[in-house]
Amino acid sequence: MLAVQRAVVPAAGRAWDALTLARVAYLEVLMALVVYCGMVMQFDVAAAVGVGLGLSEPEDWPPLFGSLADCYTLANVWGRFWHQYIRQPSLGVSQYLIRTLHVQPHSQLAYFTHLATAFVISDFFHVLSVGSVSPGFLPLSSLVAHMSRFFLVQPLATAAESIVMRLYARHVQPQLLPSSGEQKQTLHDLSGKSDGGKAASVPAVSKSDGSAVPKDVQGQHDTNSERKRKALHALLRASCRIFGYLWVLCWFVVTGWPFVKAYLDVRMADWGLPYSILESACTGRES
């Protein structure tokens, strides 16, 4: 928390130049680390106590967070990496809404309903928790505005991302990466078949006894083309991953600031550690 205290908070209403953007990103990373480490610590302590007392088994405590390597899409960030505390309760509410509104299950609209419900509920609970310490620091209307600007844009962006990925897979990727069937047809044409289906002349090689043997051009083309196809597929996959990481990073740098600012406005950086002995150890002061 000392790093947060010493950071310079960008002034409200000021245009974001490069220095301001760097400060915002710095504070957002610190906030993410504080939340991540705090939640993991609480979860691990509870798991250790539960397993140590024989009240539960280790498999009852799966990791709270997923792998950071999956964070190349917003859907993965919220569905695989981030904790799922609110997921199951919100699914019950969203399923009820889908049945009541007669939304087709597994459709794009149903997917958006699940997303919107989860983030609205999450928005509500964050406002409720921060609102308990905000009086005197941040008006309730400002708190609601800050939290809503972060949480309520997430389902919109995630749904838009899903649509873009579907369009890419349907219209762009086939042009960049021909299917195996298309490649086989191309190789079939190159290996000596004319448009009429008649075999064209194929170079031949001779055995030691003088008999002619057709050259295995088809097999060689198949092998080389499959290797090229796999290499192209790996290149496209890596390029999409890199673009995805950049997209997610830029998205949270821009949209995460209202969320972080709400906590800074309620003086989160001044909150002390719960135990004075730990605070003394961290600050170098005697308790």
Automatic annotation (TrEMBL):
The keyword Cell inner membrane does not apply. Residues 61-130 form the Wax synthase domain. It holds the Pfam family MBOAT_2. Residues 185-196 have a biased composition (Basic and acidic residues). InterPro entries: Wax_synthase_dom (IPR032805). It is a multi-pass membrane protein. Its main location: membrane. GO terms for cellular component: membrane. Residues 181-225 are annotated as: Disordered. The chain crosses the membrane at residues 29-55, 242-260. It is found in: Membrane. Keywords: Membrane, Transmembrane, Transmembrane helix. The keyword Transmembrane helix applies. This is Wax synthase domain-containing protein. It comes from Lasiosphaeria miniovina. The lineage of its organism: Eukaryota, Fungi, Dikarya, Ascomycota, Pezizomycotina.
